[in-house]
Amino acid sequence: MALLVAAFGVHAEDEKFPTGYTDTPQLPNSPWRVHDDNRPRPRVVTPGKADQPAAAPSDAVVLFDGKNLDAWQSENGGPARWKVENGYAEVVGGSGDIVTKQKFGDCQLHVEFREPLPPTGNSQGRGNSGVFLAGLYEIQVLDSYDNLTYADGQAGAVYGQSPPRVNASRPPGEWQTYDIVYTTAHFANGKQSVPGYVTVFHNGVLVQNHTELLGATVHHALPRAVIHEVDMPLKLQDHHMPVRFRNIWIRPLGDK
Ligand code: MG
Predict the structure, then answer these.
(1) Residue 89: pLDDT band by 50, 70, 90 thresholds?
(2) pLDDT value of position 129
(3) For residue range 218-233, what is the model confidence (pLDDT) as tens digits?
(4) 256 C-alpha vs ligand 1 centroid, how far in Å?
(5) How far is the CA of 130 from the centre of ligand 1 (A)?
(6) pLDDT tens-digit profile of 153-202?
(7) Ligand 1 centroid distance, CA of 65 (Å)
(8) CA-CA to 205 of 20 to 30 Å: which in 32, 52, 111, 139?
(9) How far apart (Å, rounded) are the C-alpha atoms in residues 17 and 123?
(10) How far is the CA of 153 from the centre of ligand 1 (A)?
(11) 67 alpha carbon to ligand 1 midpoint, in Å?
(12) pLDDT digits 0-9 by tens, 103-158
């Protein structure tokens, strides 16, 4: 039971999380292991000052405007049970991941998040959540401000695969932005024919530049080959930490 609980991130606030691993598999075409504790951490970059929330462009699908989670549901189909107040949605630990009712393929996605203040926990235990593209590929949400953890688990990482180019985190308590361009993998004859890619700006700073997605996100193991539809729900992670989200919008890119 203890192992199971740990795997789902239920933990006492004083539980210490490892800052990395040396017993994990080697990533393909890389000198580094998954969550490698020896992999150099990205250098710190101070992003520009935050402005007001970026207004959604006229052709965007607004997924959360601060009022309700009507565009979302819990992963097993019931209502999304995160707390909505004061213009944000906050993860309620144990209420489960939330997914969009609508499905998306290639897209431009804007998400704003705020890490808990004061910060508690360390490494992966500090402000952990995640944006799962296609519900499968995690762009890690973490309080990576002065918080040592493995490079491929930092904020802006493709979790377990690709560290951010730099650490552009703002301090906890400040709103942060992800602007993400996602192009879906395609599959034919039971295997991947075209890989998926992701580009991510964290607080306006490029952290993933057309990064190939190696497979679905997994903890402590190699990415998993998953065949999926082009259009899939977007998912936000309940990692049992009260991370807040606001101003979420998406522009489906379709064939254009
Ligand atoms: Mg996460």
Answers:
(1) very high
(2) 98
(3) 999 999 999 999 999 9
(4) 31
(5) 4
(6) 999 999 999 999 999 999 999 999 999 999 999 999 999 999 999 999 99
(7) 23
(8) 32
(9) 6
(10) 8
(11) 24
(12) 999 999 999 999 999 999 999 999 999 999 999 999 999 999 999 999 999 999 99
Query: Which pairing describes strands 88-90 and 83-85: parallel, antiparallel, or unpaired?
Result: antiparallel
Gap from CA of 255 to ligand 1 centroid (Å)? 30
Measure 140 CA to ligand 1 centroid, in angstroms: 5
Distance 124 CA to ligand 1 centre (A): 8
User: 107-114 and 244-252 as β-strands: parallel, antiparallel, unpaired?
Assistant: antiparallel
Q: Where are the strands (E) in 83-220, listed by range? A: 83-85, 88-90, 98-104, 107-114, 129-133, 137-141, 175-183, 186-188, 191-194, 197-202, 205-212
CA of 126 to the centre of ligand 1 (A): 10
Q: How far is the CA of 129 from the centre of ligand 1 (A)?
A: 4
Q: Would the pTM count as exceeding 0.70?
A: yes
155 with 139: CB under 8 angstroms? no
Report CA(52)–ligand 1 centroid distance (Å). 26
SS3 content of the chain, % helix, strand, coil (to 5): 5, 35, 60
How confident is residue 8, by pLDDT bands cut at 50, 70 and 90? Answer: very low
Task: DSSP for 105-135, please give it.
Answer: SSEEEEEEEE--SS--S-GGGSS-EEEEETT
Q: What is the CATH number of domain 28-40+61-252?
A: 2.60.120.560
Is the CB of residue 241 less than 8 Å from the CB of residue 127? yes
Rg (CA), the chain: 17
End-to-end CA separation in angstroms for the chain: 49
